[in-house]
Each structure stands twice: as C-alpha cells, then as structure tokens.
Amino acid sequence: MIDNYDSFTYNLYQYLTISGANIVVARNDKISISEIEALRPKNIVISPGPGHPSTDSGISRNVIKHFAGKVPILGVCMGMQSMFDVYGGHVSHAGEIIHGKTSAVKHDGRGLFKGVAQDIESTRYHSLAPELTSFPPELALTASTKHSGVVMGIRHRRFTVEGVQYHPESILSEGGRKLLENFLLLKGGLWTENPEFGVGDEKAPKVEADKSVNGVGASPHSKSQSKLPTILDKIKQQRLLDIEESINTPGKSHFNINESLELDLAPPQISFSDRVKQNPARPAVMAEIKRASPSKGLIAPNANAATQAKSYALAGASVISVLTEPKWFKGSLQDMRMARAAIDGMANRPAILRKDFILDIYQIDEARLYGADTILLIVAMLSKEKLVELFEYARSRSIEALVEVNNANEMELAIEIGSKVIGVNNRNLHDFNVDMSTTSRLADMVKDRDISLCALSGITGRKDVEAYLEQGVDAVLVGESLMRSSDPDEFIRELTNTPAKEEDYKGPLVKVCGISTITDALVAKDSGANFIGMIFAEGSKRKVTLQQARDISLAVKNSANASNTVFEGVHSSEYNDTWFDYQARVIESASRIRPLLVGVFQNATLEAILEAVHNVPLDIVQLHGNEPIEWTRMIPVPTIKVFHISGSDEAHQLLNLRQSGYHSMSLLDTAVPNSQLSGGAGKAFDWKITKQINTHRLNSIPLIVAGGLTPENVQEAVEVSKPWAVDVSSGVETQSKKDVVKIIRPRRRRKMAEKKDATRTLGVGELEWPRKIFHSSIGPLAIGLYVSKISMTHILRILTITLLVILVIDLFRLRSTTIGKGRFANAYESVVGTLMRESERQKLNSTIWYLLGAIISVASFKRDVAIASISILAFADTSASTVGRVFGRYTVRLPSPPFAEKKSLAGFLAAFAAGAFVSWLIWGWQVVDGGSIAEAGRHSLDTLSWNASGKLTLPSLMLAVGAISAFTESLDVHGLDDNLTLPVLSGLLITLLLK
In the CATH hierarchy, which fold is given to the domain comprising 509-759? Predict the structure, then answer.
C-alpha cells in the first residue's frame, strides 16, 4: 500500500487486514519500484491523500504505470485520480466541496462493484474530480453520484486497475467492505483472468459527457427511484433473491428439505416459550451470535459460532440467537448448525433461535432441519396475511415463533394472531435508530396475558434491564455488547444478577476393579469405594460369572440397605451443565448412596451386555474394547468408554473422547501391546496427557485415570492429572485379595493433593512477578534519593532524560511492529517482555507513564510529598494488584464508576496498608527526640511540633495517607493509566492534607 500521507491509509489497512490481507505500508517518497518488486506483491493499493495527483502523489503514478497488467491495483480518492492522470485525463475542481458527508452512488455492478447494492450511500472527502471531457479511451466510467453526476469510479478496460473517488473504508459507506473483499479476490493483471467479475471491452459502458465538465447522465444500470429504499427494504429484496437461489440449488429444494424432515433428520426440539419461562434468574438472557450489522459494520468477523454458543450456554443463557443472514450480518445456516451441535447433550440446553428475515415457509423448514427451536417473525417486514401464514405454518412444525414488534399497531397484531412470545425491538428497522424506551411504552399492552415479553436491541448492562423487570419483561436479547465483551460469562451473570458457578475440585472418586468375591466387595464398600468393578471379559483371571455378579450385587445392596433405584432424585440441573458434567454429577450423587456396580466388558456382543445389565442388575457398563460408540445409546444405564494410551498416535486413540450424548464418562488406561486384553497390566501411562486433553475450559471433561496406580504413586497421579475418579485394581492386590489399607489411602491422600494444588493456583506468569518486583524496586530507590543529598532539580533532570530515551525506543518498537518488519520489536520484547503486561505489547510501555507521573510529582510537590507519592505508586499499586488477584474473589468488588473495573475490597485494603507504611517511612522515622523533623527545610512539616500534637499526628497521618493511597489506586480517571494518575493525585491530596 502506497501511503500518500493520509490518515485514511490505516482505515484501509484495518479493513483489508480484517479481510485477510497481509499488508506492507510505505510512504510515497520512501520506497522505490525495485523495492516494491522485491516484495513480490499480489495486490497494490494507492491510498487517499491531500493535493493534486500530478504534484503530490509521489511514486504512486509510476507504480500504476509499472504494475498495470501485472497485479490488481486499487486507487482510493487521490489514488483513483492518479490513475485518471496516468492515462491522460485531467483532474480539476469537482464543482462541489464535500468533506465528511455522504452521497448516493450508482454503479455498473461489475468489477469491484460485483454484488454491491445500487444507490449506496458513500462517504466523500474531496474537492477535485476527473473531468469527463478528458476521459481516456483506456478507461471506463463505473460509478457516479446519483444526483450531481460527479465521477465516483473508473476502471481500466483490459487491466485489473480500478479506482473509486469515495471512501469505501468509511463506516458510513454502504458496501465498502464488500468492495474491498472483491479487490482481494482479483488475481493477475488482466480482466480476462477474472471472468467472474463480468468485465470486458464489449460490456464496458461508453462514457458520454454531460453539459457540465464533471457531470454524467443517468446510468443505464441504475434503477432510479423517487424514494431511497430503507435498509430494511434492501435486506428484504436481497433475502427474496437468496431464497429463490437456494430453492433452485440442486439438493436444497423445498422437496429435499421436506424429505429430510420426514426422515427425522432434524435434531430434537425443546419448547421455546417454556425455556424462556423456566430460568430461575430474571431476566432470561437471549445471547446472540452476530459478526456484523448494517449499523455497526464488522463487530466480530472471526467469531466461531460453536465456541460462542457453548460459552453462552455455560454462562446461563436461556436462548442462543444465531444470525443466519450472510450479506449484512455475515451469518449462515452452518453457524446455526454448529451452535446447535456445540450445546447438544446439555442437560438443560438453551433454545436455538434462527434470527433472520423470514419471508417464506421454505426458511421455516430450513431452520427446523438445521436445528432451530424457534424463528423470528418481524411484523414490520410482513403483510398481515403473510404474517399469519408464516406463524401458523411454524406452529404446524411445532415451532413457537418469536414475533418482533416496534410500535403499538404491530403489538396489537402480534397479540391478535396468538403470539406467546413477543419481542419489542428497541431498534427501528427502517432507520436502525435505537430507542430504549420502546419496550417500556408497549409493556402495558401484554399485562395480565399469558405472553412472555422480551426486550430486543441496545442492552449494554444490568442497569438497562432493571427497569424492564419492574414492567414484567421476561427476557432480554443481547448481541453486540456480548460479542464485544472480553468475558461473556461474567456479562451474562451480571445481566441476571447471579453468582459464578463454584469450581471446587474435591479430589477423585475411587473405583475398585476386578472384584470377584462378596468379601472383597464388602471390604471395598466399607473402605469408601464409590464403584465396584466386576470383569466379564473373556481371558481375564478376574472374570466373574453372571451368578457371581448377582451374589455380589445382592450383598452390596443389602449391606448398604439401598435398592436398585440409586439414580432417582438426582436429575435436577441448576446450571446449563455440559453432557459430561451433568453425567458426572448424577453418578457422583448416586455413589454417595452406595457403591455403584460396574460391569466391565471387552468386545462382547450387545446382547450379552444387555443380559448382564438386566440380570445382575448393573448400575454402569464399562466398554473396554472396540465396541461401537453408538452402543452406548442402546444400553439403558450410564456407560464408561475406555480409551487406551500407547504414547503414539494419540489423536487416533482419543477419537470420540468428547462426543456428547453417547458415553457418560471417559476412562484413560494404558494400552497393552500383543495382548488379547486391552488393559489390566498394571502399567501407567504419562498422566500429563490429561492436561493436553483439558486445555480449554469449554472442552474440559471429567476423566477417570486407570493403569498402574498403586498406593505409592496414586498421590502423584492425582496431583498431575486432577482426575474425576481413579480406577485401582492390580496395584492394590495382595494375593488376589483387596487390601483395605491400600484401597483407602488414595482417598485420604486426595486432600493433600487438593491443598498442594491450592498453593499453585496462581503461578508466576499470572501474578507477573518480574514486572511487580521491578515496579516495587522503585520505592526503595525513591527512599534512597529522599535521604540523599542529591537535589530535586538533578533528580528531575535524570528522570526527564530517562523518559525521553525510553519513549523514543518504545515508539520505534511500535513503528517496527506496524510496518511489518518487527525485528526490533521482537528483540525489545525478548529483553524486557517479562516487565510488560501482555496488553502493553501493542501500545506504550507503562514505564513511560510511570516516569511521567514521577516527573510531575517531583516538579510539583515538596521533596517529602514527591517521594511519598512515588513510593505509593511503587508499593500500593503492586500490593493492590497482587492481593486483589489472589484474594479478590473472596471480597466484594468496588462500585464502577467511580472506581476502575474489577477493583476489589481486598486490593483496596492492601493499597491502604501500603500507603500507611509509606507515610511511616517518610515521616515517622525522621522525628528526633525534640519532637521535630530532622534537617528542616526539606519537608512539608518543618514547623510542626510532634510532641505538642500529643504524638497523635503520626498515626493520624498514616491513616489519612493510607486512605489516599487506597482511593487513588482504585480510582478510574477517564481511563488514564494509573501509573500516571496515582502519584499525581496522591501527591496533590497529601499536599492538601499536610497544609
């Protein structure tokens, strides 16, 4: 990209990068043709810029001449004017000066404008434009303003050289991102290499000049209308075209969709209206997956629908709304299918809403096949007849639609047709303006009716929903705020005012396997085993018969005074548990009643397994061989699927490990080579593999660890793998009998593992020890300067020089990163990276703000106050962040505003203590026997007699400075870095206090 010294260059850079481009930016006088050739560019962009292309575009014109016909070239604003100038055209005054305003633009629909809507609103910043009377024959006119006829686009007739006068990178330019994406799809230097863009000599429109120099007549490709269509009109028109195209695509016809539905290929449904009412926390949250919108442009273009859906579900969302409109919202039916797959198997999964512009019954059947529980019907887009048709058809498919309204007339119609769930959109779809009072005005219309009322659009936090709750609102839909949130879980909990789910590892349960006698079974039970495993596998020396298993079963149940129905009463779900978490909770609850009887099978027939389940009877089945995972759905009790670890080809070994809806638990065991038995050899695998399996919280699953566990190594196994349960067998045998001592020791040791784990919860990386030690070291250094003979003027000079050196180095680092070379940035971060937060790698190092705050303090306050404020920065900031991170979860958070986000009472108290300590360091130890401060003339309290104050001054001062320290450390001053605000504010307040 050639930068013509214009700020818009980096807007172009941003949008092209978001679309996948890897860009090198060079100023128009800082690079040569040979240097550009060495980069071997696939595309070239000539940026906007001030001035005239013939005098102010630098190398831009030569770049166009040299690379035309070799690679695609895009010119924007002066970039386009440079193209016009290169081929002999004249650029002069446009006849109107437009800066920062929009105009309707019509175009020919080809080249870069392929797929871009007509009469788009486009942002203009220019006073020059090409003269139509001098239009070069090599070029074609592609776009002009609708009303004034000013040239807005040109294209070379043979080469992939095209430019636009307006700014597609502006957020107000409709279709701008589509145009830029089209440019990145071009290949080669000729239009003949890109036939899909519809450009050719015989097709290009001829240019005929109007009477005015820069005016043009009506475009033959523009359908002029007396009234500009609204965004809603454009979306509706496009969706009708999309529906027609989809219906006519082989394999996607309405007949094909219906045939798939008749084969019961659609995932199971839940009741949307019931799910909205079910959530105990109010309001129910309808969490939206939205990559973009017409009003905000790109929001989260790289969002993964499945990841978002699972995150929302685990945070407690009642409904997951998936945008499936591709053009303006960048969604798809595939997004909805992936979102549904991500939450399938959850004990209390959210309902899936297809949020789209539903205009045809085809879309309803399509939604059902792809996993939707409900659809959105927008009253503003539909006639009454069409609304009734779609609403009733949805109900015929067991879909209760969410009916969206925006005014009283639409609300009356929604009530009239019998809607059970009505959403009030706070955004007017005709102009996309948001009015948060819309829901409030319409709430009275559904009072005392069996209708769930939902507030849609514009929800940014708990404060937005509290008024709605008083008016009876049952649910809120949140899209953009959630997509932009760094912590969606916390955001949803804030909306519903619910606490975070407790994550407390209590240590593993114990399964004792290979039980073959009643005596061993009762010993295991009395020792506290949660599971008793009986092996039915052929070839095992511990194999039991059905009769032996029945006898053991009866003895255990009689001894525990418990029946077969241990799973009853443990199926309620307080949270949206994942499949495996729910199964683990149910099984663990049942195991508290009595040990659960597990039948272990290896490559047995399904009939043999079912016979044992019914005749013993068994509580759980363990599949230890190569049984198809689909069998787990045919076995009427929970199942444990064993995965064998051999140390190689782990991906193949762990196939289906996380497959929801099949097995209840996953057990890892050591593979035994050259044996007819898959496990039971008493050998351990590398327990660290469990950390590789559970690397992501959204994919974390409870695991059972088996293989070679003994009383000597089980503690280490628990510490390393953090298993849900351990499976012990040969390692706790003494002459084929179960040794009670060896069985119970793992259960006692699990608490030791828990305690050790608690001390390692926060590691060096999370607490940022190197950075904190560095920051804290400034405190003792400042105290040393305080008691030294060095003048404050000299200290100020040293600090200023240091600041300038670090600032220059850091600015060079950031520029090195920006222009794509990054070697200096990498070297810089490798040296001082541990002293930086991760968030600082794309902005100024906080040390700069640290030094600036110190300079202001030294220049503004007396010696003791300056050193006190710097010491508070060193000690209070470090203490507050460290203590807050470790203990903040156990104390309340400070209100935001006025305090910064996520500041806790624990951190506040730590800063208080640090401030009190600093005040003692600065003033307390300097008081001599006579009751005055040593070395008068260097302090703010020279004339104070400490003895005359009743010796209460020091403790009072410590309390006051502690309060100042805590307050300034926690305060949010318009988002400024606290390394700057903390010393300045604390110094100012201490000065006022001392006066």
Answer: TIM Barrel (3.20.20)
- 712 catalytically annotated: no
Spatial contact of 839 and 954, defined as CB atoms under 8 Å apart: no
Which is higher by pLDDT, 442 or 621? 621
Catalytic status, residue 454: no
Which segment of 275-289, 357-371, 981-995 scores lowest on mean pLDDT? 981-995
Which helix or strand (DSSP H or E) is residue 453 part of?
A: strand 452-456
What are residue 375's DSSP bridge partners?
A: 354
**Burial degree of 735 (CB within 10 A; 0-12, 13-18, 19+):** exposed
End-to-end CA distance of the chain: 59
Please write down the HEC assignment for all residues of 751-773: HHHHHHHHHCCCCHHHHCHHHHH
CB neighbours (10 Å) of residue 772?
17
Query: Could you confirm whether 221 is annotated as catalytic?
Result: no
Check if 234-496 and 509-759 are the same fold. Answer: yes
**What is the DSSP annotation of 250-298?**
TT-SHHHHHHHHHTT-SPPP--HHHHHHH-SSSSEEEEEE-SEETTTEE
Rg (CA), the chain: 36
* Among 121, 131, 162, 169, the one annotated catalytic: 169
pLDDT score at 232: 80
Task: Tell me how far CA of residue 471 lies from CA of 276, 524, 873, in angstroms.
Answer: 17, 58, 47
DSSP 934: S
At 740, give phi and psi (nearest 5°).
-60, -40
The predicted structure's pLDDT at residue 846: 72
Q: Which residues contact 200 (CB under 8 A, 6 or more apart)?
A: 191, 192
Tell me: pLDDT of 934 over 70: no
Q: Are 453 and 443 in contact (CB under 8 A)?
A: yes
DSSP symbol at 795: H
Least confident range of 63-77, 379-393, 763-777, 910-924 = 763-777
Contact present, 772 and 881 (Cβ < 8 Å): yes
Query: What is the pLDDT averaged over residues 360-374?
Result: 96
C-alpha–C-alpha distance, residues 651 and 204, integer Å:
55
> For the domain bounded by 234-496, which CATH number is listed?
3.20.20.70
Out of 77, 404, 410, 829, which one is annotated catalytic? 77
Q: For the chain, what are the domain ranges?
A: 2-197, 234-496, 509-759, 767-994
- pLDDT of residue 794 exceeding 70: yes
Amino acid at 388: V
Domain 2-197's class? alpha beta
Catalytic residue among 156, 167, 663, 939: 167
